[in-house]
Design the sequence.
């Protein structure tokens, strides 16, 4: 062992009920998955629109492989940027109604790259305390001064902005919070940014494809647009594939392309994924029923669930967290569901605050009403038993 205290650290994690393990999937992602030869009804993925194993996407990926091969073979700025990548960027920009877009291999890399491309030592990054880990890491990597305000606390943010004397100021927020499913007060955040001459970066990982009449995400949901907004979203969740993008003015996108180290110093993602994503974007535009069905499933879940000691957070997104409380309790609930053939992941600290361990129920357009009925019946029983 390289460090003798590694085993102790792992034992300590285990003692706190915080040791994580992986389930090994033997099927495609979907409403029903196979693990260890068993079929499960699954409420754990971010495949909100049910596109991850859609036949049209699989077909496009195969055609993409036939045309471009499997690996991109180089970074975008050398010779790895294919016609499929290029078309995808143009279609993404048009879809979110921005001048230009730039794709990244993952949302994690996009956030590191975007923030560190724009911000430096003399700058200030202000972030919601419940933001995704990648946004915090991004701010640290940028070497800007980094301050966090309490979740949705506009007053505290205002005080921070009012006293700032930095060259550039950036407010960064998840658009939809991944563990709570609540939506950031974007119009109010934007108004503060305008007042104090700051920019606003929105991470719409969970809103893109889901929010808004046409699935254009949080900007469409609120009906806003502003040159101050730096919009990013991921392509491995509702879009069902892999990757991420940032969208905005030509100048913003050029700057990120020239400066983002997670864009420059890495191999382009496989072009076949860009081919699949072009089809995914097409289905997002044409299949409005997927978003309608999701809203109906969320309403049905709220209506059927009867667990007085366990509380569903108020959420109008497909993320429907059920607060259980303790780490061991949430593990027991998740395990009891599993014995009934249902998967709903237990989320524990430090991902969520202490005492707020939860089942993160995530709905997908691939679920049927009957699937949700099965889940609520199991939960209603368990809430009485446990
Ligand atoms: C999932 C997620 C990311 C990371 O995206 P990946 O493509 O999975 O790396 C970034 N931000 C938020 C809010 C996310 O939920």
Sequence:
């Amino acid at each position: 062992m390289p460090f003798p205290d590694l085993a102790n650290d792992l034992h300590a994690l285990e003692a706190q009920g915080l040791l994580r393990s992986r389930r090994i999937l033997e099927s495609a992602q979907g409403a029903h998955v196979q693990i260890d030869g068993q079929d499960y009804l699954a409420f754990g993925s971010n495949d909100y629109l049910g596109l991850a194993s859609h036949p049209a996407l699989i077909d496009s990926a195969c055609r993409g492989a036939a045309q471009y091969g499997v690996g991109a073979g180089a970074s975008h700025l050398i010779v790895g940027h294919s016609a499929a990548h290029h078309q995808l960027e143009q279609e993404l920009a048009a879809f979110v109604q921005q001048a230009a877009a730039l794709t990244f291999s993952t949302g994690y890399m996009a956030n590191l790259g975007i923030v560190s491309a724009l911000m430096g030592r003399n700058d200030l990054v202000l972030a919601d305390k419940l933001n995704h880990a990648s946004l915090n890491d991004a701010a640290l990597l940028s070497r800007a001064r980094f301050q966090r305000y309490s979740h949705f606390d506009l007053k505290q943010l205002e005080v921070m902005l009012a006293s700032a004397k930095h060259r550039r100021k950036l407010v960064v927020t998840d658009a939809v919070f991944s563990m709570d499913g609540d939506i950031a007060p974007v119009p109010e955040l934007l108004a503060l940014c305008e007042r104090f001459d700051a920019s606003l970066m929105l991470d719409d990982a969970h809103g893109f494809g889901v929010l808004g009449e046409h699935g254009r995400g949080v900007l469409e949901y609120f009906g806003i647009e502003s040159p101050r907004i730096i919009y990013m979203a991921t392509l491995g969740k509702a879009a069902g594939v892999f990757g991420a993008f940032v969208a905005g003015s030509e100048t913003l996108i050029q700057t990120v392309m020239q400066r983002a180290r997670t864009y420059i110093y890495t191999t382009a993602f496989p072009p076949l994924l860009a081919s699949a994503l072009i089809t995914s974007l097409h289905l997002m535009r044409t299949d409005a029923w997927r978003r309608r069905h999701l809203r109906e499933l969320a309403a049905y879940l709220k209506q059927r669930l009867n667990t007085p000691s366990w509380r569903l957070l108020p959420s109008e997104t497909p993320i429907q967290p059920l607060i259980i409380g303790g780490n061991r309790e949430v593990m027991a609930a998740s395990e009891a569901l599993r014995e009934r053939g249902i998967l709903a992941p237990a989320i524990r600290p430090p991902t969520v605050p202490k005492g707020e361990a939860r089942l993160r129920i995530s709905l997908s357009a691939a679920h049927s009403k009957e699937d949700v009925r099965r889940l609520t019946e199991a939960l209603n029983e368990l809430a009485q038993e446990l």
Observations:
- The mean pLDDT is 96.
- The first strand starts at residue 32 and ends at 35.
- The chain has 15 helices and 14 strands.
- The pocket of pyridoxal-5'-phosphate is lined by residues 106-108, 111, 132, 134, 174, 178, 203, 205-206, 234, 236, 244 (CB under 6 Å).
